[in-house]
Amino acid sequence: MENLFWTILESDLCVEIPTFIKNGFDYSNFGNALVFKEISDQHIDDLEKFIRYDIAKLVEIKNPEEFYGRIFAKDHEKFIFLPGERVLIKELVAHVKSIVDQNGKNTGLSHFKSSKEIKTESISSGARSGIGDNVEQMTYSYFLNQLLSNARQNSDRKPGGFRYDPDTRKFAMYLRMIMGSLAYQTLQANLEGAIPSLPSINRYIQSSHYHITEGVLRTEELRNYLNERSLPNVVCLSEDATRVVGRVQYDSRTNQVIGFTLPIHGESGLPIPFKFPARTATEILNHFKTGSVSTNLIVVMAQPVEKKASPFYLLLFGSDSKYSAIDVKHRWIYIKNELAKVGISVLTISSDSEPRYNAVMRDLSQLGVASSIKWFSCGKNILNPFYVQDIIHLITKLRNLILRTKWLNKKLPFGKFKIDMLHVYVLLYMYSKGEHQLTESVLNPADRQNFSSAERMCNERVTALLDFGVENSEATSLYLKMMRDIMSAYMDPNLTPLQRIRRLWYAVFVFRIWRRYIENHKEFTLKDNFLSLNCYACIELNAHSLVLLMVHLKETNQPQLFLPNLFESQQCESTFRQFRSLSSTYSTVVNCTLKEAAARISKIQLQNDIMHGTSEHFVFPRLKKKSEFVEYNHFDLPSKDEIYSEIENCQKDAIKTAKEFGLIGKRSAKTFECKINPHETKHTQAKRSDPILNVRKNIAELDLNNIKLKDYTGKLKDTNFDLTSPYVEILSDDGEQTIVKKTSLCWLLREDCHKLSSDRLLRVRHPTKKLRTQPNKNFKSKISKRPRKPTKKKMK
User: Fold this and answer.
1) Share of the chain residues as helix, strand and coil, in percent rounded to the nearest 5
2) For 447, phi and psi rounded to 5 degrees?
3) Which residues make Cβ contacts (< 8 Å) with residue 677, sequence separation at least 6?
4) Distance CA 530, CA 404 (A)
5) pLDDT per residue as tens digits for the range 36-92
6) Are 679 and 329 in contact (CB under 8 A)?
7) Is the dihedral of CA 556, 559, 561, 566 positive or negative?
């Protein structure tokens, strides 16, 4: 141990080595402070090289075997550390520190300290001697220096005159939003003069102008957002919806009633903002008579085509889900044209596989239109954006399909074999959990959006075990492999462009051949024995879009824009998760109303701007985690001929696989084209539910003359307030005036509130009663047949 320690001491692992130690100092007495770095594997490799080649030059040793023990072998140029010695070296600093920490027991080692401890001690000594005495030593933490500087500047001022630098104010705003009022107030009370007070922070947030108004398209704000951060004027759009609490509320900032569904403009497809003003009591009453309450929040995000750039909230509005696909088509075209007016181009548009979004994508991309190449069936206009379905939603759809083979007895014939979830369950009980990483809860079909479950199911371990140990599971293994290929084509950062093409198009051709096999057998139907049309169209759409994207970026010489991880709608999903978790301490509220959701998203946008604007001085774990994600390796994009040649090879391999599985005969056709019919989006009249949710059934009979709300007439009788005031005036038939709050009037007019479960799984659970997870239908009858205990009368 001693020889090994001094060998490290002579190397570059020691940051500070007193010269007299190297010059023959008696090292039996430790009387000097040594400062060590954290030792890593790379440092140990450098130490091995040092011992092999350099240590003999520094120290003149006649018999190195006797002096250094095992450090020098007969052939010291082949020296390596044993595994146990490597662990000992890595833990050396922590071991020495633990010895020093024992009070009074090791006085000889009392001067050993780490570099972090020495810096902290210098700051502490500076703080004890006076805040302004040793400011030059306070370089350990920017935030700590700012706190001390603010405290020193505000020490001679009155509390109402405290001033703070902009960085501290922004960071304090961030802390207030993530901590909540109580936690921040407690922190500020113990750091008075160092950070702003809670009322000051609330005023800063209100005056930050980060207010997102429902139904307003923020094109100018997006242009400023890109220019301020020197981001390219190319974005990827994504649109998605989530459930919100159906409640109508009054918004004093806009003097509007928030919670009703805004009407959709026929030509632009955008909602018409400011359609529910709250100027008078009669006007508010009419809104409740005719309005439809929003139960969904639709968000349109703009993701800059840059690796570490945060998305921008372009548009949000409430909806009752009574909109048509033609509204979505007009909205996407209108947004694309409006962004082009401010110099921003749209590269892709993504969404989940919702039927209306899927229909519009099929229409705009002209999926199913034949071309000169038989296997390519997409007549997309190159001037339009590229359309990509979210890969995570697509993989969960494929997972749910194979799960239904067990829980709903859905048959998936695949030539000589069949795709069956029972093969995976056999694997579950044949091998240990450590070998396949599967559990029964992972295979639960009730959770229909469990992407981690899909990842585990199509893992290489599972498919290898199926091929090795489960009989007749060839088709099931192939299905899971195709799931993995479809997922990795967009999500694996280490694949080359041609590898992405190969994996995705091989799966496409296998699905095409399988689809023709189902069509050629009368005992099977596409509805019962194949993928749904929605799921199959998503696979075809993503495959064609991947080819078109590569060709377009290659021809325009923009390979840096090929970032497949951004061609998805997970920006919207991340937003939904973030604003549901935006609750303060001691709060478990995850659901919110439309008004609250807009306010939370405004705060999220402010948080993102603070993080990116002050990241040079402050550390944000969320931003740091995002910056450390696995980056996509940049490869040169292939030419069109190389892409087409690779796809034709995929077709040959798929035909070979199909023959092995019995999907086609030996003399089958050599080409398999897409059989999806072109879709044309048509206008359909949306049917609205009646009665309207959250509106009083007897609202027509409501008498405003006899309401029992708190009357503010005495306080505001002599006050002149206009129509934008948060108060409203009600006149009775006899001319008597009553002044009430608009918020109270909205509360009176709504009858109930559509609540949501805080458990997200309950909102995505399959509603069918055929699942094995539900109680047996004969459960009650079995209970009734059990012998009952004799009553007291019978016992007598």
Assistant:
1) 50, 10, 40
2) -85, 95
3) 368
4) 12
5) 446 777 777 777 777 666 655 544 545 554 444 444 444 556 666 665 566 667 666
6) no
7) positive
d(CA 350, CA 386): 9
544 is a domain residue: yes
Nearest to 151 by CA among 192, 185, 198: 192
Residue 203 CB neighbours (<10 A)? 12
CA 113 to chain centre: 41
Kindly list the distances between the CA atom of residue 250 and the CA atoms of 157, 260, 298, 697, 745, in Å, as whole numbers in the listed order: 41, 11, 20, 20, 9
The pLDDT score that the predictor gives to residue 632 is: 53
How many CA atoms lie within 13 Å of 691's alpha carbon, on the beta-carbon side? 12
User: Could you say which of 645, 673, 702 is where a domain stops?
Assistant: 645
User: Which structural domain, as residue segments, surrounds residue 26?
Assistant: 2-118
For 123-153, give the DSSP string. Answer: HHHHHHH-TTTTGGG--S-HHHHHHHHHHHH
For residue 715, being part of any structural domain is answered with no
Could you give the CA distance from residue 316 to residue 217 in angstroms, rounded to a whole number? Answer: 8
The tally of domains found in the chain comes to: 2
- Distance from C-alpha of 360 to C-alpha of 681, rounded to nearest angstrom: 6
pTM of the model: 0.75
The two three-digit tokens of residue 595, written as one number: 């008004």
Angstrom distance (rounded) from CA 326 to CA 321: 13
Structural contact between residues 458 and 391, judged by C-beta atoms closer than 8 angstroms? no
For 1, 170, 778, the CA distances from 625, given in Å and listed in that order, are 39, 21, 51
